Amino acid sequence: MSKLKSITIADDDPGILDAVGMLLEMEGYKVNATLNGNTVINEQHDLPDIYILDIWMSGSDGRELCKKLKSAERTKHIPVILISASNDLQRSAETAGADDFLAKPFEIDALLAKIEKALQN
C-alpha cells in the first residue's frame, strides 16, 4: 500500500485551514495545517509532498516562503501552490517560483486538480 501523500497548508484564516484541511483529509491526504507560515520553513523533519501557501499571512508572505523553499536543497523539488484572495498576484506567485496559483474563493475540485497535477510532475 502506498504511503498517504502529505500536504502542508499555511493560511492565517482558521476557517479556510479547517475547511480545506478537512476536505483534503476526506480525499485521503495527510494534512499538516499551520496558521503561521514561518513554521513551514522551520519544520524540516517531516517534509510534505506538496505545500499550499497563502500569499498574505500575518508575519510572513507566501511568496517569500516559496522563494526560501525553492532555494533550499531539501525542499526545492517539492511543489508549491500559492493561494490568494487577489487574482492580480498570479504573476508575482510565478516570479516567486510557485508551481501553481489559485485565487480565493476557490472550488475544492479546482484545488484537488492542481494538487494532482503538481504531484504528477
From TrEMBL:
Residue positions where 4-aspartylphosphate is found in the record: 54
Response regulatory domain boundaries: 6-119
Q: Name one GO biological process term.
A: phosphorelay signal transduction system
Q: Which InterPro entries is this protein grouped with?
A: Bact_response_regulator (IPR050595), CheY-like_superfamily (IPR011006), Sig_transdc_resp-reg_receiver (IPR001789)
Q: What does the UniProt keyword field contain?
A: Phosphoprotein
Q: Which residues cross the membrane?
A: none
The record's listing under Gene3D superfamilies reads: 3.40.50.2300
Q: Does the keyword Phosphoprotein apply?
A: yes
Q: What is this protein called?
A: Response regulator
